[in-house]
Amino acid sequence: MILPALIDPHVHFRTPGGEHKENWITGAKAAIAGGVTTVFDMPNNTPSTTSTLALQHKKEIINEQLKTAGVPLRYYLYFGATADNLNEIEKIEKLKDYKIVGVKLFMDASTGNLLVDKLEDQEKIFKTCAELKLLLAVHAVTSAKRAIELAKKYNTKLYICHVSTREEVKLIRQAKKDGLEVYAEVTPHHLFLTENDQKRIGTLGKMNPPLRTTEDKNALWEAVLDGTIDTIGTDHAPHTLAEKVVPEAQAPFGVPGIETSLPLLLNAYNKGKITLEKIVELTHTNPIKIFNLPETGDKVEVDLDLEKEVRNEDLKTKCGWSPFTGQTLRGWPVATILNDKIYNL
Ligand code: DOR
Ligand code: ZN
Ligand code: ZN
Which residue CA neighbors atom 7 of ligand 1 most closely? Predict the structure, then answer.
């Protein structure tokens, strides 16, 4: 079975500044292994991608690493919003060739130092993005309501990352009914794990937003099936095992996910939980529409009957672990076609 290659609209490939966790050599290989040929990378790097200079620098490193990898992975970047970089955001418009897919705003705490939690600063960012017709993606663990209100007030095209609760689902469903340009993403870990799994996997299940209840998970599935959720973004956020396997309070937030997303979805298809059409809509068609991307012709060949266990030693991500390790999944990508070149998996 041949499907369109996946677009992952939410990854943290850790470059620059966190290359011991991931870089674009290992990240590109992990993407291909997961049937993904296009990624959108987040700006919480060291230094953060919050100026055009930092953006230029980041692109140079990425291009060099992709060349070394021999994988011309397609990528777009998010530009980070801060309380005082509106002048930099205004410059983005003129940098069309920089492939910026939108502005990222951390309304709640996260990895990195990009938190903007003052309402007046957030207002300015929503307003500026609306004026410049830039999509605004938000990390809003508790602030989804405020984000939707601001999108309504300023007419901002809003993309809510990693929706994880039934309350958020309700708000987004209503916002769509009200005709707002509000889009929503869900991660594989919130679709396939709950807080009950955290007892088993410990700090490997620590991420932001955290794993939720079974009721939340069920609400997310309902929202996926009724169109309230538009996309699946893996929030691929690797940290090394040495960083992760420490007492709970010290463990960083984040899990890798780009290699396991498609197998998890195909496994769900095999269980009758989702159709292949829906998988394509979430991972290909909707991202193209929301972010105005060109069609590429990239494909992924999948073997719907192949059964395989997720094993650390098979993973291409530099961090070398997965919260799904030990799970046997049915349905795997077997070849990824990027720019007419076939990568057998
Ligand atoms: O769990 C998370 N990890 N959530 C985020 O928002 C950031 C990410 C990271 O960069 O580690
Ligand atoms: Zn986030
Ligand atoms: Zn993220």
Answer: 111
The alpha carbon of residue 221 and the mean position of all alpha carbons in its chain are separated, in whole angstroms, by: 17
323 lines ligand 1 (CB under 6 A): no
Half-sphere exposure in the Cβ direction for 239 (13 Å, CA): 20
Is 48 close to ligand 1, i.e. is its CB under 6 Å away? Answer: no
Distance 11 CA to ligand 3 centre (A): 6
Q: Which residues contact 141 (CB under 8 A, 6 or more apart)?
A: 108, 109, 164, 208, 209
How far is Cα 269 from Cα 214, in angstroms, rounded to an integer?
19
Distance CA(236)–CA(291), nearest Å, equals 19
Q: What is the pLDDT of residues 172-205, one digit of tens each?
A: 999 999 999 999 999 999 999 999 999 999 999 9
Select from 300, 299, 302 the least CA-distant residue to 270: 302
User: Any idea what the Cα angle at residue 275 is, between residues 274 and 277, rounded to 5°?
Assistant: 135
Position 93 scores a pLDDT of 75
Residue 260 sits at φ, ψ, to 5 deg, of -105, -10
Distance from C-alpha of 167 to C-alpha of 161, rounded to nearest angstrom: 14
